[in-house]
């Protein structure tokens, strides 16, 4: 929803983190900043899914204070390495330097702490959601600086020829193969629930992160449940 109050509500509800979706969500970087400010003030880490594997956008969102980034549609180790380089300062990367004045460093008031922790505490997640990503899953996961692989079952199912069928047995077999490759590389793996696989099932299968729920869905489902409840009382429906 690109709304700071929505992010704050989710943060105060007790989620481990919030993911601000700048790939499919409507917000710009300023809206993302407002959401990060709200979530972080409530003690909840704020991560951002960026629109694309773009070095300029990654630089800007990290300067703005994102504590983690998710890069969509990573299909090769080279793409993964480019994303990591965009997140790191020279000599380990190519990120432009403005840390004396950026939000991430407290606008320069927390420089020693920021410079010490900027690499170690930044979470970099690569999404595997294409056939190419599946083919190169082991190499992507093994890329230095990639902390977690996140499977995108909806896009992946479409790319495999099973549009809007993330629970198709063929798709789940591919996902299991990706999970095996990621674990073999010693990295963590995440995913979203689908109709046939809720959070409990996914954790039992060994997934380390499950992103479950969205502000729009919370509002939609709550509103529809309230309408149904009132309709049951009044007989109107």
From TrEMBL:
Annotated HpcH/HpaI aldolase/citrate lyase domain residues: 3-216
Domain of life: Bacteria
Short name of one Pfam family: HpcH_HpaI
Record's keyword terms, sorted: Lyase, Metal-binding
InterPro entries assigned: Aldolase/citrate-lyase_domain, HpcH-HpaI_aldolase, Pyrv/PenolPyrv_kinase-like_dom, Pyrv_kinase-like_dom_sf
GO MF annotation list: aldehyde-lyase activity; metal ion binding
Family according to the record: Belongs to the HpcH/HpaI aldolase family.
PANTHER family, sorted: 2-KETO-3-DEOXY-L-RHAMNONATE ALDOLASE, PHOSPHOENOLPYRUVATE CARBOXYLASE FAMILY PROTEIN
Protein name: HpcH/HpaI aldolase/citrate lyase domain-containing protein
Organism encoding this protein: Oceanibaculum pacificum
High-level lineage: Bacteria, Pseudomonadati, Pseudomonadota, Alphaproteobacteria, Rhodospirillales
